[in-house]
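Q: Could you write out the predicted structure for this multi-component system? I'm mainly interested in how the pieces pack against one another.
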Amino acid sequence: GAGVSQSPSNKVTEKGKDVELRCDPISGHTALYWYRQSLGQGLEFLIYFQGNSAPDKSGLPSDRFSAERTGGSVSTLTIQRTQQEDSAVYLCASSWDRVFSGELFFGEGSRLTVL
Amino acid sequence: AQSVTQLDSHVSVSEGTPVLLRCNYSSSYSPSLFWYVQHPNKGLQLLLKYTSAATLVKGINGFEAEFKKSETSFHLTKPSAHMSDAAEYFCVVSGAGTASKLTFGTGTRLQVTL
């Protein structure tokens, strides 16, 4: 497809389990971002990739969170030993700009529920 | 440091009446400002952006916003609301030295009634 694709769209897991969330950005976009959106709150920045490297991972809330990007394309966000406070919608966005323009293209998100 | 404050968490208007969604910003640098819209179960979409050119910025679907430095505001307006405008709207700031990420407001949910 032409847009940013995220999977799964919905994930329900038990506390303590690991989860992987996938993002397939728009072809040719060099920049990729992960955000978290909790109920009633704005978007919280998690990590930014330029190509396969992550120059800014300052938003990752704990060492249970990690992300990687391969081939300058697909990215995976991994949450280990999930906790109930990890429940949120995880949004991925991409951009073709090396000079930041502020225009990000967002996927529809992965809704994570930790029981 | 930079931040945005969206003054209303929820706004309700009647179809055909004007829309005003308020946003104030704080930035140590000359900011770039944006409005994004999120329709239910959809990804966020850029509505408009200000990057130090014209202070009145026009966006998609008839929306516009005016950058007012003296008031540190970037309010979003539309002359006549349509039912399809019902969505969540986010004011966003990006400043020099923070090109890698945007700072989002907490959002304003716009409800449009008949």
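A: Regarding packing and overall arrangement: Chain A touches chain B through 26 residues (CB under 8 Å).
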